[in-house]
């Protein structure tokens, strides 16, 4: 590939054109989870205030746009959280965006062990999602949400986060092979990504994501994360059912919470290096037809198979200076060795490596792509 050329799948006509009539501009609230970290919530709300689309006030459209209303769901009740929510409620009211404050009742004091905290967080998630999708958040003027965008109190969003979510919403609604849309790239600390490039992945990243009402009501609600660890529960094949997630190559969210979270800042060193895109893309003007399942698979596999084949990592690094390259791994043990050497996340959940698509994990080497591919191909994850 010539130096400086960006890598995106070619655009071919398909039914998915998110800047047309398929977009539903209402019924997609933003749900923010919070507990005790008032300073983090303050930062997140200020960031949302700067990024969210303002309502349109004309004769044809008086509704809030995507991410409205904003719903802050608090686990328990804390005076400093209440003060912050009240202050931002006034700020958002000025620009025509309602801010609702819900309280998840704590029946007993939360134990501060890691496992107990995860269980408490999962219960909060399940309660809040049920309330929101049942139309019980706020007053009766809010329609039943068709989908919901989910953040936590320690997540910063990119300037085009809401445009990204809105422009992928119709694809999520209409493609039964999709599970969710995420704004996060687990390997987003690597340089030289393409800000306009979106990918499909078998791995659920979380950290700023969107799900549909249909998925919650008809599948997840009835047996929600019984053992806690809700994100790993979602990644399990029983829930995912082979469906995929849309994610950006350059993250549209940044996780800044290093203290007080239930994960104990497990991946802090890498998360702190993830690059947040700061040059907004007008996603409503982008043709995202290449994300259609069969089309994407065909084009992506061509991109991989047309890359040069290397037998060692040193060889792959050298060959990547002049174009895309791939190297095969024959086990998860070997994958982890490769991943550590090239500086990407080396773990897996439900036997799916982070960011993987059909077992393939890609990363940037300058302006080229380096693909770690399973030896002999892969049919599902075993």
TrEMBL record:
This protein's UniProt keywords: Glycosyltransferase, Golgi apparatus, Manganese, Membrane, Metal-binding, Signal-anchor, Transferase, Transmembrane, Transmembrane helix
InterPro entries: Glyco_trans_13, Glycosyltransferase_13, Nucleotide-diphossugar_trans
Matching Pfam families: GNT-I
Catalysis: reaction(s): N(4)-(alpha-D-Man-(1->3)-[alpha-D-Man-(1->3)-[alpha-D-Man-(1->6)]-alpha-D-Man-(1->6)]-beta-D-Man-(1->4)-beta-D-GlcNAc-(1->4)-beta-D-GlcNAc)-L-asparaginyl-[protein] (N-glucan mannose isomer 5A1,2) + UDP-N-acetyl-alpha-D-glucosamine = N(4)-{beta-D-GlcNAc-(1->2)-alpha-D-Man-(1->3)-[alpha-D-Man-(1->3)-[alpha-D-Man-(1->6)]-alpha-D-Man-(1->6)]-beta-D-Man-(1->4)-beta-D-GlcNAc-(1->4)-beta-D-GlcNAc}-L-asparaginyl-[protein] + UDP + H(+)
EC number: 2.4.1.101
Compartments where located: Golgi apparatus membrane
Transmembrane segments: none
Enzyme class per UniProt: transferase
Record-linked Gene3D superfamilies: N-Acetylglucosaminyltransferase I, Domain 2 (3.10.180.20), Spore Coat Polysaccharide Biosynthesis Protein SpsA, Chain A (3.90.550.10)
GO annotations of cellular component type: Golgi membrane
Principal location: Golgi
Keyword Signal: no
Keyword Transferase: yes
Topological category with respect to the lipid bilayer: Single-pass type II membrane protein
Swiss-Prot/TrEMBL cofactor(s): Mn(2+)
Family statement drawn from the similarity comment of this UniProt entry: Belongs to the glycosyltransferase 13 family.
PANTHER family given in the database record: ALPHA-1,3-MANNOSYL-GLYCOPROTEIN 2-BETA-N-ACETYLGLUCOSAMINYLTRANSFERASE, PROTEIN O-LINKED-MANNOSE BETA-1,2-N-ACETYLGLUCOSAMINYLTRANSFERASE 1/ALPHA-1,3-MANNOSYL-GLYCOPROTEIN 2-BETA-N-ACETYLGLUCOSAMINYLTRANSFERASE
Protein name: alpha-1,3-mannosyl-glycoprotein 2-beta-N-acetylglucosaminyltransferase
Organism: Fragilariopsis cylindrus CCMP1102
């Amino acid at each position: 590939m010539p130096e400086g050329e960006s890598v995106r799948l070619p655009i071919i006509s398909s039914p998915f054109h998110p800047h047309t009539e398929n977009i539903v501009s209402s019924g997609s609230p933003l749900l923010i989870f919070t507990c005790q970290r008032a300073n983090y919530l303050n930062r997140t709300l200020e960031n949302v205030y700067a990024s969210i689309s303002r309502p349109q006030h004309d004769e044809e459209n008086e509704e809030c746009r995507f991410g409205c209303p904003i719903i802050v769901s608090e686990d328990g009740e804390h005076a400093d959280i209440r003060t912050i929510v009240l202050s931002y409620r006034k700020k958002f009211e000025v620009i025509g965006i309602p801010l609702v404050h819900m309280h998840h009742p704590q029946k007993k004091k939360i134990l501060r062990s890691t496992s107990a905290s995860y269980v408490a967080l999962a219960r909060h998630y399940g309660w809040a999602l049920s309330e929101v999708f049942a139309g019980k958040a706020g007053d009766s003027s809010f329609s039943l949400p068709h989908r919901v965008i989910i953040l936590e109190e320690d997540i910063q969003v990119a300037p085009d986060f809401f445009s990204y979510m809105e422009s992928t919403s119709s694809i999520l609604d209409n493609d039964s092979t999709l599970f969710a849309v995420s704004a996060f790239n687990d390997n987003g600390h690597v340089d030289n990504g393409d800000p306009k490039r979106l990918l499909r992945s078998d791995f659920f990243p979380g950290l700023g994501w969107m799900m549909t009402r249909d998925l919650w009501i008809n599948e997840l609600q009835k047996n929600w994360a019984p053992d806690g660890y809700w994100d790993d529960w979602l990644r399990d094949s029983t829930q995912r059912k082979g469906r995929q997630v849309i994610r950006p190559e350059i993250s549209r969210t940044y996780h800044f919470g290093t203290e007080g979270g239930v994960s104990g800042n497990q991946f802090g060193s890498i998360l702190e290096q993830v690059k947040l895109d700061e040059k907004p893309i007008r996603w409503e003007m982008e043709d995202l037809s290449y994300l259609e399942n069969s089309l994407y698979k065909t084009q992506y596999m061509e991109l991989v198979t047309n890359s040069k084949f290397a037998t060692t990592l040193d060889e792959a690094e050298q060959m990547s200076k002049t174009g895309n390259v791939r190297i095969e791994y024959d086990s998860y043990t070997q994958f982890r060795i490769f991943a550590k050497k090239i500086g990407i996340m080396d773990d897996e959940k439900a036997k799916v490596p982070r960011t993987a698509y059909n077992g393939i994990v890609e990363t940037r080497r300058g302006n080229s792509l380096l693909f770690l591919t399973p030896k002999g191909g892969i049919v599902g994850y075993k």
